[in-house]
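Hi R.,

Here are the chain sequences for the assembly we discussed:
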Amino acid sequence: MSRSHTDVTDQVENPACPVSEVLDRVAGKWAIGILVAAAKGPVRFSELERTIDGISRRMLTLNLRKLEREGLLTRTVYPTVPPKVEYACTEMALELYETLLSLVDWATRHSGDIARAHAVYDTAHTVAPAP
Amino acid sequence: MSRSHTDVTDQVENPACPVSEVLDRVAGKWAIGILVAAAKGPVRFSELERTIDGISRRMLTLNLRKLEREGLLTRTVYPTVPPKVEYACTEMALELYETLLSLVDWATRHSGDIARAHAVYDTAHTVAPAP
DNA sequence: CCGTATCCATCTCGATACTG
DNA sequence: CAGTATCGAGATGGATACGG
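And here is the predicted structure of the full complex:
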């Protein structure tokens, strides 16, 4: 093999970069919350609306459509009255979810360092240098 | 232990969610590109400006400051003339980079499925239903 | 119940110009 | 070389109201 799996540079630089694309998919304020909520089993629209807390109807719909389009969620309509719609993670999404866990792990392990970095940076940049 | 490491739900729902935070850090259009460019060794400002291709001076600066504040990059000024500034990944950032690789892997493995999902969704939603 | 449509405030980002 | 300052276009997201 001529290229190691760490040679990702060219992919990041070009527009089809898979990392950036996947991050753009789930980076929004709500996408992950939705994914997580749906990871445990099918959820209804109104359930999500209550669970996510703070999300507007519009944003919920937009994110659901987006995730559905990406193939991360399936949408199932039950033609009952009143209507019932369930959203469920696809296999792909559950795999992604597992991968996301390693990010959680990283973030957890380094939360201290990050907080420290913030403090250091802020004190170094916001306190006016003494005259 | 009372909670498995997969019980991330409550974290996603609350504002201090580590996943969302870490994604917000690197999800921008440029952050990953910068991180990748710096992963191979210290880089100068103008080097990044040329490498990243398409980034404006302003955005480069903003992202560099942000990443520096997060503790992902270090900034070293050499008081020469002309000035020289080098940016380098921290240990933390290199670790994050490795983690990101698993996302690349996921994206690569499923790029076909995603493209298919797009196609399916689009044909189902953009072609007007025949009357 | 499950959305879509509309309006508006806010934020983001690129272009451009100027400085130590 | 390595930034900062300012401005305006466009994207983003919340509130609200209405439709299937």
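The two ends of chain A are 60 Å apart (CA to CA). Residues 1-6 of chain A have pLDDT under 50 and may be disordered.

Let me know if anything looks off.

Best,
T.
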